[in-house]
């Protein structure tokens, strides 16, 4: 039996798939199988995959069915004792699998190990850190407050935890990973590798509709999370909702192009503070408020330039990739 199954869903990923796979093949831990689910690609994805010569690579092609179904199809082919998912445009540092596997072996009660994420621009030229937390053990209350794992390319999961959580929900076309972590956390502890090991690529595609879509599915998944939560955690609901609207405010402010979008961001910011007034103490909320106020006076383009966070500078350290 293989130790780790790495599952990569790929749909029209010709621009990034080879770089992504390279980051897997360069892992310091080598006992893995690499399962790529070609999810009905119509570009050169499959052609490029066939140029890779490595016995660990297994390619399965299906008609397009979406990310969740592709991950589920990957699970059905997996033979590993542990499983890791990687989106076709994200990257791993070389020690990602080695250190996460060590964390799970050190904590047999843990079903999932996660690391820290480094966010990168679409062209992989600008980098900024994610939220670096060290939550371990029973993390259900922390998950209710935020998806601190950040993305689906992050964790390594025991096969037994996969079996207890079931499949990814294909009815969710966004934040399906957060929904899955909730289901794992109902039965298993989590372990952490306190090191940035995932490079998550942010795409600028369809930003005009992304906020509305995100809001819909974030609220669905959060409601599911609270339905499964014990009574003593129900008092976190307003804070959880405020965190969601704080996040959506940031998305709105980052991509505004006209006055109506500025007003829309303001409505989400007001909802954030109304749900949980203490959130005004957070620097993130204060920064969004300042940015929104500047946009009330200046054009969105000028305001975005003047309030651009310094944290997006290229000087942020990037983990070694090769």
From TrEMBL:
Gene3D superfamilies: Spore Coat Polysaccharide Biosynthesis Protein SpsA, Chain A. Residues 5-248 form the Glycosyltransferase 2-like prokaryotic type domain. InterPro entries: Glycosyltransf_2, GlycosylTrfase-like_prok, Nucleotide-diphossugar_trans. Pfam families: Glyco_tranf_2_2. It comes from the Bacteria. This is Glycosyltransferase. It comes from Nostoc cf. edaphicum LEGE 07299.
């Amino acid at each position: 039996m293989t130790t780790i199954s790495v599952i990569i869903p790929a749909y029209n990923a010709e621009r990034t798939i080879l770089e992504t796979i390279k980051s897997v093949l360069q892992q310091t831990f080598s006992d893995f199988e690499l399962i790529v689910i070609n999810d009905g690609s119509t570009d050169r994805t499959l052609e490029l995959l066939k140029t890779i010569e490595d016995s660990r690579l297994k390619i399965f092609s299906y008609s397009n069915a979406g990310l969740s179904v592709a991950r589920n199809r990957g699970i059905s082919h997996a033979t590993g004792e542990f499983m890791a998912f990687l989106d076709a445009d994200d990257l791993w540092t070389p020690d990602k699998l080695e250190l996460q596997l060590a964390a799970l072996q050190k904590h047999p009660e843990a079903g999932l190990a996660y690391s820290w994420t480094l966010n990168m621009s679409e062209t992989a030229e600008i980098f900024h850190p994610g939220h670096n937390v060290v939550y371990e053990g029973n993390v259900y209350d922390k998950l209710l407050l935020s998806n601190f794992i950040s993305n689906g390319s992050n964790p390594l999961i025991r096969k037994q935890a996969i079996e207890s959580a079931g499949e990814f929900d294909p009815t969710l076309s966004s934040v399906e990973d957060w929904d899955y972590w909730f289901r794992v956390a109902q039965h298993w502890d989590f372990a952490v590798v306190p090191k940035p090991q995932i490079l998550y690529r942010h795409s600028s595609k369809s930003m005009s509709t992304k906020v509305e879509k995100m809001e819909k599915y974030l609220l669905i998944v959060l409601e599911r999370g609270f339905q499964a939560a014990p009574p003593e955690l129900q008092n976190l609901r307003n804070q959880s909702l405020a965190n969601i609207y704080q996040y959506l405010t940031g998305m709105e402010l980052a991509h505004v192009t006209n006055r109506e979008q500025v007003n829309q961001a303001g409505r989400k910011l007001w909802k954030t503070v109304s749900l949980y007034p203490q959130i005004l103490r957070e620097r993130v909320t204060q920064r969004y408020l300042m940015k929104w106020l500047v946009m009330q006076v200046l054009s969105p383009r000028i305001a975005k330039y003047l309030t651009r966070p310094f944290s997006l500078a290229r000087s942020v350290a990037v983990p070694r990739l090769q």
